[in-house]
Every structure is written in structure tokens, then in C-alpha cells.
TrEMBL record:
Pfam families: DUF1036. This is DUF1036 domain-containing protein. It comes from the Bacteria. InterPro entries: DUF1036.
Length: 130
């Protein structure tokens, strides 16, 4: 049973663009560094990448505009695959048959929820905590 007005804990990405955006996330888990993708987030909608209370302080995000090719990137290199994936480890991406992309780091502090808003200017996502 949920209390009225209780916040829903999750990591969400909202697409503020007019195009479909593909999103991948990276995080630290018991088995090591994990990257997962792709979430297809249509224009002007949101997608939940992680449901429930956030277990890590740092999360990493990479996104691509499917129509215009714009990218939201950062300085942290992690592995991705062309199709749906869950990859353990961030080293030797190419040798293991993956691609390497730069992910942007988000420090969620002690927040149980986090939301990233992707805008029409790739590389400048906005973030907020709930």
C-alpha cells in the first residue's frame, strides 16, 4: 500500500526534443560496471531506466538522436552494442566486439530518484532530483 503523495523512486530520462532518442545507462553493481541500452524514448515523453530506490550514487548516460544524429555524451568511456545490450565491464570494448562511447556522469548524491531532461541542444542535458 502506498501513502498518498509518496514519491516514486526511479532514474528517468525525458526527451524534450522533437525526435526519437536512444538512451544507454551505466552504473556500478555487485558484479562490476554495467552498461545497458537501448531505451527508445519518443519525442516529448519520458522513460524509466531504473525502477525503485537508486542503489548507486553515480550513474552515467549516453544518448543519440535517431533522426539528426546528435549525441549527448561525456568523458567517461563505457561499452555499448548496436542492438539491445547489458554489458558487464568497461574495459577492452573493441576487443570484446562492442563500441566505446563517452558517457556523462551524474552525481545523484543521496537522492532516491533522479531525472535527466534531454533538450534540443545535444551535450547540454538538464538534471533534477525529486
Amino acid at each position: 500500500m502506498f501513502a498518498a503523495g509518496a514519491a516514486h523512486a526511479e532514474f528517468r530520462v525525458c526527451n524534450g526534443t522533437q525526435n526519437l532518442v536512444g538512451v544507454a545507462i551505466g552504473y556500478r553493481a555487485e558484479e562490476g560496471w554495467i552498461t545497458e541500452g537501448w531505451w527508445q524514448v519518443p519525442a516529448s515523453t519520458c522513460a524509466t531506466l531504473i525502477e525503485g530506490e537508486l542503489q548507486s550514487r553515480y550513474y552515467y548516460l549516453y544518448a543519440e538522436d535517431a533522426a539528426r544524429g546528435g549525441r549527448w555524451t561525456g568523458d567517461i568511456n563505457m561499452c555499448v552494442a548496436e542492438n539491445e545490450f547489458k554489458i558487464v565491464g568497461v574495459k577492452d570494448c573493441f576487443a570484446r566486439g562492442y563500441q566505446q562511447m563517452g558517457f556523462k556522469e551524474y552525481d545523484t548524491g543521496r537522492q532516491g530518484s533522479w531525472m535527466v531532461q534531454l533538450s534540443d541542444t545535444p551535450g547540454t542535458p538538464q538534471e533534477s532530483q525529486n
